Amino acid sequence: QVQLQESGPGLVSPSQTLSLTCSVSGASMSTNFIYWTWIRQPPGKGLEWMGHITYSGSSSVNPSLKTRAVISRDTSKNQFSLELNSLTVEDTAVYFCARAPNYGVGYDEWGQGTQVTVSS
Question: Of the four, 13, 61, 92, 97, which is 20 to 30 A from 47 by CA?
Fold first, then answer.
């Protein structure tokens, strides 16, 4: 059974950097064609794709985030991470990690999500 679990701080200050980790169990991050993804949902808004890292280690980030977001992985721990810097209150959201079995298809596994609030 595949499980994804997000971890990280629930409250961060504006201008600081958010670091979130997604721990994966029941599947290898190096399995072919898998896209390991970060998605967020601000309050009252829809889901926003933030970016992904692939089975081969290449990453892609939503252009709307410009250079603020970095996605990386640690295959020895079977984890992937999101760093988002220069936080503003608009980054307040529930952050999810998810798995897509291939490019362009839907997500078949999701973490439960973690609330991140940006506030001073």
Answer: 13
